[in-house]
Design brief:
By secondary structure, the chain is mostly helical. It is built from ten helices and four strands, in the order H-E-H-E-H-H-H-H-H-H-H-E-E-H. The strands form two sheets. The chain has a two-stranded parallel ribbon with strand order 1-2. Strands 3-4 form a two-stranded antiparallel ribbon. It is globular. 24% of the residues are buried.
Length: 239
C-alpha cells in the first residue's frame, strides 16, 4: 500500500515540471550490514523514474560506512542501469559475479540467491509482506539459523576455490579473500546480534566468535553498525 501510494503521487507529479531530481535509499539505517533486498525493485524504479521525467538521482547507501552486504553489486547495477534502464538485469548480475568473485562466482551467486529467495519468501508469506524500509528493525526470528549457516557455508566454499592461486598470485588471492570476507562479516554480524536466539550464549564459542568478528571488522575497515552507531559501541552492547 505504501509503495502504491508513492507511485500514485509520482505519476501525478510528472504532469507538473519537465525534470525531476530524485533521492532514494538502498540501506537499512538501523542495521547497515545485513542483506538488503532492493534488487527486485531497482530496475523497475529506475525505469519509472525515467518515465516520469527524473534527470538526476541521488541513491543513498550507508552514512559513514564503507560498504554493506553486496554494496559493490548495487553500485555496479545502478551504474549500468542508469545508462540503459532496459538492460538485461540477469546478464549484468552474471557479469558482475564472474568478474568480481572469479572462481568463487558460482557459490557467491548461490549465496545471493539464498538471501534474496528468503526475503521473497517472507514477502509472500507474511501478513503485510516483508518490505524493508530505510528504518527497519530486523526480527531474528525471521532469519533462522539454518539460513545463516547455509550462507556461511557457501561463502566458505567460494573462498576455498581461491586456494590454488595463493602461491602463484598472492595479491589477487588476498583481494578475493577480502571480498568474500565482507559478506561473511555481514552474515556473522547478524548472528552475533541475535546470538541468544540461535545458540547458548554461555558457551566458549560465543567469545571466540565475537573476538574473531571484531578482528575481521577491523581488517576491512568497518566503522558503523547503524546510523550514528559505531561498531565499538555495538560490541560493548553485546553480552
Amino acid at each position: 500500500k505504501l509503495n502504491a501510494s508513492f507511485k500514485t503521487a509520482g505519476d501525478g507529479w510528472k504532469t507538473l515540471p519537465d525534470n525531476f531530481y530524485e533521492r532514494d535509499y538502498s540501506a537499512d539505517y538501523r542495521a547497515f550490514l545485513p542483506f538488503y533486498n532492493v534488487y527486485g525493485a531497482l530496475q523497475k524504479n529506475l525505469q519509472w523514474y525515467k518515465e516520469i521525467g527524473v534527470v538526476h538521482i541521488f541513491r543513498q547507501d550507508t552514512t559513514g560506512e564503507a560498504f554493506n552486504s553486496f554494496s559493490q553489486l548495487r553500485a555496479y547495477l545502478t551504474s549500468k542501469l542508469m545508462w540503459d534502464v532496459d538492460a538485461d538485469m540477469n546478464a549484468l548480475m552474471d557479469d558482475f559475479f564472474d568478474k568480481f568473485y572469479k572462481s568463487g562466482a558460482g557459490y557467491m551467486r548461490e549465496y545471493f540467491n539464498l538471501m534474496q529467495g528468503h526475503c521473497m519468501t517472507l514477502d509472500a508469506t507474511l501478513s503485510g509482506g516483508y518490505h524493508k524500509t530505510c528504518y527497519f528493525e530486523i526480527d531474528p526470528n525471521k532469519w533462522p539459523i539454518r539460513i545463516m549457516e547455509q550462507a556461511l557455508d557457501l561463502i566458505a566454499k567460494a573462498e576455498a576455490t581461491y586456494e590454488p592461486i595463493k602461491a602463484t598470485d598472492s595479491a589477487l588471492y588476498e583481494k578475493l579473500k577480502l571480498r568474500t570476507l565482507q559478506e561473511s562479516v555481514c552474515v556473522r554480524a547478524l548472528i552475533m546480534d541475535n546470538y541468544g536466539t540461535y545458540y547458548n550464549i554461555e558457551a566458549p564459542r560465543y567469545t571466540e566468535m565475537k573476538e574473531q568478528l571484531r578482528k575481521d571488522m577491523e581488517k576491512i575497515g568497518i566503522s558503523f553498525w547503524k546510523e550514528s552507531g559505531g561498531i565499538g559501541t555495538w560490541f560493548s552492547e553485546l553480552p
